[in-house]
Design goal:
The protein is mainly α. The chain contains seven helices and no strands. It has one domain: Glycerol uptake facilitator protein, CATH 1.20.1080. One of its GO terms (molecular function) is water channel activity.
Length: about 230
């Protein structure tokens, strides 16, 4: 069986209308996601002052990249859009909250950084595996209709598990925007290394362990950038 095909992408793809629309979509979606996620944290902080996170995720894009489902060029464009969206959202939040610094993510007291790293790897693996099973797998069939719901459930479950320990980011953009605007960089590497490792493992295992391994002889799944 021919090996899985990877593609760097042609130079003209960078200015192709489809690429531009997809990149703009990633920017807007990540901006909305980070605004809502970080905004809810700021709301909790503000309310307790007087009393006492498309792909929308660089890790999901990386999982699709290692599985050969997206070209390197398009992945690069997505990453730029996602990070910019996160920064813009965090800036808007800082303005809208009269200068409150975005909280971002941090490892809780008593939780080691390596423990937090392992948790980010496991949680992001589960997230990207779910994305593959419901949104990327060409045999997904009717599962595609419940992809957003399934992804939302896995994110919510992961937050319940990992949130008290290290915030449950699973998304480098979600961690980067607030860190840059709020200038809170402590343990930031965890929220990059963990999600990328977890996403890469999920992409490789699902692509080669399930999709490619079960494909009929002499068939080959082409790149499917239109899915993104």
């Amino acid at each position: 069986m021919p090996p899985r095909r990877y593609a760097f992408g042609r130079a003209e793809d960078a200015t192709h209308p489809d690429s531009m629309r997809a990149t703009l979509s990633e920017f807007i979606s990540t901006c909305i996601f980070v605004f809502a996620g970080e905004g809810s944290v700021l709301a909790l902080v503000a309310s307790s002052m007087n009393v006492s996170g498309g792909h929308v995720n660089p890790a999901v894009t990386f999982g699709a990249l290692v599985g050969g489902r997206i070209s390197l060029l398009r992945a690069f464009l997505y990453w730029i859009a996602q990070l910019l969206g996160a920064v813009v959202a965090s800036l808007l939040l800082r303005l809208a909250t009269d200068g409150m610094r975005p909280v971002g993510f941090a490892v809780s007291a008593g939780e080691g950084e390596w423990n937090a790293l392992l948790m980010e790897i496991v949680m992001t693996f589960g997230l990207v595996y779910t994305v593959y099973a419901t949104a990327i797998d060409p045999r997904r069939g009717t599962l595609a209709t419940i992809a957003p719901l399934a992804i939302a459930f896995i994110v919510g479950a992961n937050i319940l598990v990992g949130g008290p320990f290290e915030g449950a980011s699973m998304n480098p953009a979600r961690a980067f925007g607030p860190a840059l605007v709020g200038w809170r960089w402590r343990s930031q590497w965890i929220y990059w290394v963990g999600p990328f490792v977890g996403a890469g493992l999920a992409g490789l295992i699902y692509e080669y362990g399930f999709i490619h391994a079960e494909a009929p002889p002499h068939t080959h799944q082409p790149l499917a950038p239109e899915d993104y």
